Amino acid sequence: MKHTDLIQHFRTAGTAVSITPSGAGHINDSFLVKTSEPDQPDYLLQRINHQIFKDVELLQNNIWHVTNHIRKKLIEKGEQDIDRKTLTIIPAKDGKLFYFDGENYWRVYLFIQGGKSYDAITPALAYAAGKAFGEFQSCLADIPEKIRQTIPNFHNMEFRLEQFREAVAGDAAGRVKNNKEIIAAIESRADEMTKVERAGREGKLPKRINHCDTKVNNILFDEKGKVLCVVDLDTVMPGYVVSDFGDFIRTGANTGAEDDADLDRVSVDLSIYTSYAQGYLETARSFLLPAEIELLPFGARLLTYMQTVRFFTDYLNGDTYYKIRFPEHNLQRTRAQLKLLKDLEDRREQLVLK
Ligand code: ADP
Ligand code: GN1
Ligand code: MG
Question: Is the Cβ atom of 53 under 6 angstroms away from ligand 1?
Answer without folding.
Answer: no
